[in-house]
Amino acid sequence: MPLVTSAEMFKKAYDGGYAIGAFNVNNMEIVQGITEAAQELKSPVILQASAGARKYANPSYLKKLVEAAVIECPDIPIVMHLDHGPDFETCKSCIDNGFTSVMIDASSKPFEENIEITRKVVEYAHAHGVVVEAELGALAGIEDDVKVDAKDSAYTRPEEVEEFVSRTGVDSLAIAIGTSHGAYKFKPGTKPQLRFDILDEIVKKIPGFPIVLHGASSVPQEYVKIINANGGQLVDAIGVPEDQLRQAARSAVCKINIDSDLRLGFTAGIRQTFIEHPELFDPRGYLKPARQNVKDIVKHKIVDVLGSAGKA
Ligand code: G3H
Ligand code: 13P
Ligand code: ZN
To answer: The pTM is what?
Structure first.
């Protein structure tokens, strides 16, 4: 089937109490690892490209890679999404180039400005059959040594979400409830805990509306260990516990963003192969295990965390 928007996917996920995995893509092996896993498990999937990914791979190559995945995976719905679109022009460029979903991330701007930019993107996107994700609140690391008030101010404010959604016409909303990007999400020795109380308040304000969780990697320690046992230096890398991601997936959270875990798996595959086979210099020799790790991780997420297997 051709690329789809996430509208139908999110409705089913909301009603069914599961979430769709949104995985970041940067090269062919990552696209293949993700989509082979989703195809085998008959799971809908979102492939997302950041501005950095587009710069690295070149938008034309990324688009063709995703088109190839669509051909190779005829049984599953696939969304092509812009992750963290920084401005209207980037969103417009992706919409004009066949993306079916874009995120406009104006969350660092004041509330009114965020509304204004988001509404402009929504108008253009909807006129072209594309859906829009926006963000309210800042994804701060909760390891930041800030006072409680300042720390709380980074979380999404439930009293703002209804007005934001109705004035922008946005299709889904990314919120900040204690996750952060990257592999260092929590201070060692502290108990990682997402603010489900804030999520509950948000859901009460906008019942039935799809919520997005960024920064949702769990930083699997088996891959961190492989990396460190093979020359890497990742100290105190800590992610979101999977039981909390499962809880989120059962709730109004319909899209869960995962990038760092794939980076860890990919890096572990390459590092391990280099150490175990120092004679090897064929890129296929070390990219194959890296791709397999991506596939294994995505399968695990779909089956054990997101609950989206068989929902295609
Ligand atoms: O949210 C950020 C994603 O992990 C993408 O990261 O901008 O380095 O491609 P990137
Ligand atoms: P992680 O860094 O936790 O994988 O988050 C990825 C993300 O939110 C992409 O938008
Ligand atoms: Zn993100």
So the answer is: 0.96
